[in-house]
Amino acid sequence: MISYKVAVVGNYSAGKSSILNYLVKGEKLTTSCSTIGAAFFVLRSQKKDTIIKYEIWDCAGQSRFRSLVPMYLRNVHLLFLVYDRSNPESFRDLETTWIPFVRQNMTSGFTTIDPLIFLLENKVDLPDNYNLTEQGIALAAKEDFAYHQTSAISGQGIATLLEKMNNRIIDKVDLPKKPSKVFQPLRVLHDGRDGEQEEGKPCGQYLRCN
Ligand SMILES: Nc1nc2c(ncn2[C@@H]2O[C@H](COP(=O)(O)OP(=O)(O)OP(=O)(O)O)[C@@H](O)[C@H]2O)c(=O)[nH]1
Ligand SMILES: [Mg+2]
After folding, report:
1. Per the domain annotation, does 210 fall within a domain?
2. Ligand 1: nearest atom to the Cα of 58
């Protein structure tokens, strides 16, 4: 089994927790609430004979939690930058705030290569009124990110996202032949409790849900 550390960032309400919920549980979130601090998910998958375990930190998008994000960016193998196609500010903030911020604070769990970065255009069940698909593709090409579309409501693009993650992460690993020794699977949860997180259960604290 190979474990990878994953971090997910982007503006408040871009749909990060909803995407992860769909990815891990295969269904849409019934009640949504803004993440406080961070939430943690474990996702197990398989590519040929290799079991892949993703340990995923879902970082709160609200700016008051920004100072916490660097610790989740440390030694990541995979990063998701998420924007909401119905909200141009979420795309602009990726360009002006999130990308410089992660470049400054991210270190790689791979010793010799950079982390794999996906630019996720979410809410593709809604119309592309602001031409953010074209802009997303251009940004991904410029920054050398993988570009992918998702809807955490209809489930569009979720299964293919997992396929792409598995394929590309294995390709990355093939270069150095094994995961970095720098990477240690996380045991301490963000709220200070020790132990393994139950699979599929986010452990972040949440604001009161509707
Ligand atoms: N139409 C549509 N709505 C979505 C989609 N994904 C998320 N939403 C909605 O967008 C809102 C915010 O979703 P969250 O997953 O909580 O967003 P987040 O990025 O985790 O937000 P923070 O935790 O505050 O950073 C909720 O009302 C979701 O139901 C999507 O693909 N399509
Ligand atoms: Mg959230």
Report:
1. no
2. 20
Tokens of 108: 């790689």
DSSP 64: G
Residues with a CB atom less than 6 Å from ligand 1? 12-18, 32, 34-35, 60-62, 122-123, 125-126, 151-153
Structural domain of residue 182, as residue ranges?
2-190
Return the ligand number nearest the Cα of 16.
1
Q: How far apart are CA 21 and CA 200, in angstroms?
A: 8
Residue 33 lies in a domain: yes
| The pLDDT value given to residue 196 | 41
Per the CB < 8 A criterion, the answer to whether 124 and 156 are in contact is yes
Domain count across the chain: 1
Mean pLDDT, 10 residues at a time, over the chain (210 residues)? 96 98 93 94 94 97 97 96 98 98 93 91 98 98 97 98 94 56 38 39 37
Q: How far is the CA of 14 from the centre of ligand 1 (A)?
A: 5
Q: Which tokens sit at 36?
A: 């406080």
C-alpha of residue 193 to centroid of ligand 1, in Å: 27
We report the CATH number of the domain holding residue 51 as 3.40.50.300
The confidence score (pLDDT) of residue 136 equals 98
